[in-house]
Write a structure and sequence with these properties.
five-stranded antiparallel beta sheet, four-stranded mixed beta sheet, about 280 residues, alpha+beta
Length: about 280
């Protein structure tokens, strides 16, 4: 089913302090209103595509940004005027059939993003968000979380949108890396052009050095403040690397690829981490 946006409203379904879903009621252009429920992982995937497009907007010229701001303000007012109501009854009696189980960015066009949403009942929506509507959809989602006191969840979601982990690794005593692998659908990989290898070198109180590594996809180059922030932030979400969170480490980053469709094998990634490790040892 086709689903575009003329107006939308958002709310939060919770059980005590636990987040269950973001409710998004959509008033389409030519059909009846639709109420969808996005659990945390589905909401993250929706926002990941939107955040990628917003990042592209940042590279526009000043003239383009000015024109875009005017268009956004006009679209925002139009969407607010068409905002549907969400009743407390709709939130407290949420239909599980309308829960979004899977989100896929199926078309990434210049003027719009199209998501394929798979619901709990097996039906699918082709959910179209116009380029000029993206900021408002993000703001409406964030405002619903904030109003519900879900600040921790909001920060967690927002901190996971600008990188994609591929491998986490730990250097063992035999010199080899023991690693964990993360698999992602093609649409997510295509959002991030740069593939970065990162080595962390931590010296414990006894003077022993421990080395960990990760390979991630990002939108930022090495030797930037952005990649430095990501290298610290991702430690919170990795079971293997979490041991380094909050610890002072030497961090070395090397770019492996700079195009979204270029493939780097597991062997290439482990070899890059090994080479980074060796280069750090030679410097000392």
């Amino acid at each position: 089913m086709f689903l575009d946006i003329q107006g939308l409203n958002t709310g939060v379904i919770r059980h005590g302090d636990n987040f269950l879903a973001l409710a998004m009621k959509i008033r389409p252009t030519n059909t009846t209103e639709t109420l969808l429920f996005f659990p945390a992982l589905s909401l993250r995937d929706l926002l990941m595509g939107l955040e990628s497009r917003i990042a592209q907007h940042h590279s526009q010229t000043e003239e383009q940004r000015h024109a875009r701001a005017n268009t956004h303000q006009r679209i925002k007012q139009s969407m607010l005027a068409a905002m549907p109501e969400i009743s407390q009854h709709e939130l407290s009696h949420a239909d599980i059939a309308q829960r979004v189980e899977k989100v896929v960015l199926s078309a990434n066009d210049k003027d719009k993003l199209t998501y394929t949403l798979t619901l709990h009942n097996g039906s699918e929506y082709q959910f179209v968000i116009a380029d000029a509507q993206i900021e408002h959809v993000v703001m409406a989602s964030a405002m619903a979380l904030k109003n519900a006191g879900m600040n921790t969840l909001m920060l967690r979601l927002s901190s996971m949108l600008d990188f994609l982990p591929r491998y986490d690794a730990e250097r063992k005593k035999d010199g080899n890396f023991e690693y964990d692998t993360y698999d992602h659908p093609t649409w997510k990989n295509d959002l991030f052009p740069y593939q970065q290898a990162i080595i962390y070198i931590y010296t414990d109180e006894a003077g022993n050095k421990q080395e960990y590594g990760t390979v991630i996809k990002t939108r930022c180059q090495s030797n930037t403040a952005e990649i430095e922030a990501i290298s610290r932030r991702l430690l919170k979400y990795s079971q293997r690397l979490n041991i380094l969170d909050g610890k002072a480490c030497q961090v070395i980053v090397r770019t492996l690829t700079a195009t979204p469709h270029q493939t780097v094998t597991l062997e290439d990634c482990m070899r890059a981490l090994h080479q980074l490790s060796q280069s750090s040892q030679q410097k000392h």
